Amino acid sequence: MAKINLRPWREELRAEKQQQFVVMIVGAVIVAAGLGFLWKSHVDDQISYQESRNAYIQNAMKSLDSQIKEIEDLRRKRDELIARMKVIQDLQGKRPVIVRVFDELVKTLPDGLFYTDLKKTGDTLQITGMAESNNRISSLMRQFEDSEWFTNPNLTNVSSADSRRAGYSQFNLSVNQKTPEPEEEGKKK
């Protein structure tokens, strides 16, 4: 007898292929979802790793900023101390100068003349005094010119004194102070 297949085999084949297609689609979606999840996990791990690195850098920057501020404070304090030391050294260096200036003032003072007032402004010394005669004032000016500590004597006023000092003339004189070179100072001592 002849075999005749009356069953709807084409529809079964189509249903079976459709079922295989759906399984493959579902499998592909599951694989894609798994790959997507792995990719997202990897990206999240990278983001959290980068955020931790950023946080570390931020903390390090804060630490460095505080250290920089401390260094700037220390530099400022150092500069202030250096300035103070320089002032002290300048004062220490000038201390013998004022003694020498007063010593030179006494050396240049001729007989019959005395000082009543001394004022120093910068390197200029304003001298007010009394003299028995004008010759003594000119002698004082010559001695200032010959001095190694003074230069440019300038007589600004000569007037007769009040009645208490009869015979004396009052004078106003300005003279510039010069600081001799260290070799000159050493030779004089």
From TrEMBL:
<keyword id="KW-0812">Transmembrane</keyword>
<keyword id="KW-0175">Coiled coil</keyword>
<feature type="region of interest" description="Disordered">
    <location>
        <begin position="169"/>
        <end position="189"/>
    </location>
</feature>
<feature type="coiled-coil region">
    <location>
        <begin position="57"/>
        <end position="91"/>
    </location>
</feature>
<protein>
    <submittedName>
        <fullName>Pilus assembly protein PilN</fullName>
    </submittedName>
</protein>
<dbReference type="InterPro" id="IPR052534">
    <property type="entry name" value="Extracell_DNA_Util/SecSys_Comp"/>
</dbReference>
<feature type="transmembrane region" description="Helical">
    <location>
        <begin position="21"/>
        <end position="39"/>
    </location>
</feature>
<dbReference type="InterPro" id="IPR007813">
    <property type="entry name" value="PilN"/>
</dbReference>
<keyword id="KW-0472">Membrane</keyword>
<keyword id="KW-1133">Transmembrane helix</keyword>
<dbReference type="Pfam" id="PF05137">
    <property type="entry name" value="PilN"/>
</dbReference>
